[in-house]
Amino acid sequence: MNESTSVRAQLSPEQIRAEYERLTKSEGLRARNAAQEIGISEGELLASRVGMDVIRLADEPEAILKEIVSLGEVMALTRNEYCVHERKGVYENASFFSHGQMKTGLFVNPDIDLRLFMGQWKYGFAVMEATKAGTRKSLQFFNGAGLAIHKIYLTNKSSEAAYDDLVAKYRHAEQNPSIEVEGAAPKASDRPDSEIDWEGLRTGWENLKDTHAFFPLLRKFKVGRVQAFRNIGNDLAIEMDNTAARRLLDLAAESECEIMVFVGSPGCIQIHTGPVKKLVEHGKWYNVLDPKFNLHLDESGISHSWVTKKPTEDGIVTAVEVFDGNDELIATFFGKRKPGQPELELWRKIVDQLPVKEVTNVA
Asked: Which residues 6+ apart lie within 8 Å of 114 measured at CB?
């Protein structure tokens, strides 16, 4: 039995709530950090508040997502351990698909642009938190391990009546203050470099027609993403200094270059396309604080950064990919582009100015 399982077995919902209240008052911790401090998942923390300021939602995330459009403008939030992506807009143009056992979803809009992996969407909650500015209402979704997948917050332009109707319609029949969580699946280890067909991978990479074919290519050759970057050659992937993300944001703001910013959780990738303007450093976080788009990047979590080049039918697509110490993707940056159009020359000029990682010679 691991420590977190032991903690879960020992704490009642009342004890979790008491500890959460103590941590928020004494240390000002947000729910995600408070849950980590307590030794439980954020989903379990929210579940403990069911019957108070939280309502458990029915296990129908697809149906709920299709009706978010009725709320009007909301704020979409997707995050991982080291990056938070917030975008305001309307949840229009929902599409859902089944590929055998796999279910996916899309929202494709200038503002709300999401890629959804519905197999991860296990628990949903309506949350009504008391704040100094009044009650803040949201819908929050978690996977089977209790990790946050996606959150939707009302703004001052949202319809509270539509939110209340939606919550009433999809209220779960059982309002229990606990959920059953499973352990997060361990990350698969990379195969030894000596077992990889590097020549075959290189040929496949050079003949890509679409960036979406890159992940299937890695899967075909059973190679890790960062493992591929380290071995493929500097013309296709080159390691950068870990200030690259900050520098590209600075240069994009200075040159008014429109960019794309992808940030993912286990079940959602959220995309911003457009300019970045107001950049603010606050402690270990580097932030974009624009009216409709906020990005919070914890630079202390960046372990390595790469510039990658992938051929497509529209020419080379250049990305800046930022990873943590477990080789998990924190964020990906592109120049603004659409299918059928080459990437922006201004974006390429920005990438050319980014600092390459210095190689230390060991005598």
From this structure: 76, 78, 105, 106, 107, 150, 268, 269, 270, 271
pTM score over 0.90: yes
* Cross-strand pairs, 272: 261
d(CA 281, CA 289): 10
Sheet holding 72-79, edge to edge: 54-56, 123-131, 134-142, 148-158, 72-79, 83-89, 293-298, 285-289, 279-282
Structural domains in the chain, sorted by start:
3-91+122-169 (3.40.1570.10), 193-352 (3.40.1570.10)
pLDDT tens-digit readout, 278-301: 999 999 999 999 999 999 999 999
Cα 135 to Cα 212: distance, rounded to the nearest angstrom: 41
Q: Residue 205 contacts by C-beta under 8 Å, 6 or more apart in sequence?
A: 214, 217, 228, 232, 236, 310, 311
Q: Which residues contact 131 (CB under 8 A, 6 or more apart)?
A: none
Calpha distance 348→318 (Å, rounded):
7
